[in-house]
Amino acid sequence: MKTIKDLDINDKKVIIRCDFNVPIKEGKIIDDTRIRAALETINYCIEHNSKIILLSHLGRIKEESDLKKNDLSPVAKRLSELLERDILFSEKTRGPELEAVVDSLKSGDILLIQNTRYEDLDGKKESKNDEELGKYWASLGDVFINDAFGTIHRAHASNVGIASNLDSAVGFLVEKEIQALSTLNNPERPFVVILGGAKVEDKIGVIENLVTKADKILIGGGMAFTFLKAQGMEIGKSLLDENNIDFCKKILSTYPEKIVLPIDFAVTNEYTNDEEYRQKASDNISIDEMGLDIGDKTLENFENILRDSKIVMWNGPLGVYEFEKYKKNTDRLLEYICNNNIKTILGGGDIVAAATQAGYKDKIYHASTGGGATLEYLEGKTLPGLAAIK
Ligand code: AMP
Prior knowledge:
The chain has helices at residues 33-47, 65-69, 73-83, 96-104, 131-139, 157-163, 172-182, 204-210, 223-230, 245-254, 296-307, 328-339, 349-357, 371-378, 384-387, and strands at 13-17, 24-25, 28-29, 51-55, 88-90, 110-113, 143-146, 167-170, 191-195, 216-219, 259-260, 264-268, 278-281, 290-294, 311-315, 344-346, 366-367. The protein is an alpha/beta fold and 390 residues long. The strands form four sheets. The protein has a six-stranded parallel beta sheet with strand order 5-6-4-1-7-8, sandwiched between helices. Helix 1 (33-47) packs across helix 3 and helix 11 (296-307) packs parallel to helix 12. Residues 196-198, 202, 221-222, 239, 291-292, 316-317, 319-322, 348, 350 line the site of adenosine monophosphate.
């Protein structure tokens, strides 16, 4: 992997594709994690006297009315606070005004260009990797750094398009993400995968790929019920992914020793946080009940398996994390992992958000910043943003 350290960036115009796709409400940034994650690469460029040109998307732009709410200028303000220096901001994503600012950049200056997806109003030029747009953005700089892990699984003009036209490399964030994930290709053993979340459908590719590599796959969340149904169990009103029962049957029969299912659940009668719940064995769920979290015996079983593991990959919460009552065992397993220093990679937005909320994120070995990108990597797919650099 060619990294920023392999390029001469001294006094050069360096275009950095960042992932500044942060949650913004009424012009205020609610979570600046992604901006902070970009600082290492930006600081490195400052130290090397580069003229820095930053690009990022924010949200989706389908019509005029999407423009204002996806204005990237609050990011310039936050970045300026974090770096304690001025940030220039270009309202224009192309044209003579932008080019004039780029030409005036001095060493150490930083310019943030407006949301790359403003170009999507014109025939989805950014998202469809319009050749001419990629070439144009590339013409603004001397070298290109892709540090946007969150979009590395997409071929857009601002990543693949620019990389195809300039000497390029990945930044420190992408390097760190890929290095962490690539340890799973040749893992220390036992290698344990924890999979939760809602639907089997979304995780088929990950299961198919990781079941061949992992020693155990611990299944929790809504997904578990389709596996139990495949074993002929009553799951009541629990989440069922009807179309994938046969897939679960196939996985269970091919890898019976690898798949570990919950033995009990926190069950209730309605999808709400307001009712009381009970702990029930997996084979004792009534037709009017639904499981909204794994049970305490399952937690204990998962902890016993994790105790000896050398590396763990965890995607998706084990219960309905949005409800206070049903986040309990996800939080307890996170706590167990942190207290026992179990080398764990968290991948996928929801579990990283859960770890952040519960205050465990900084104690985890690696928490990925890109949900979709991580999943595609774990499915064994080529990441176009990375391939364009190679
Ligand atoms: P994912 O995006 O696939 O990681 O799924 C996350 C979603 O899974 C969250 O919104 C959770 O509420 C949901 N989820 C987890 N456990 C359950 C469950 N037992 N029943 C229904 N939904 C669940």
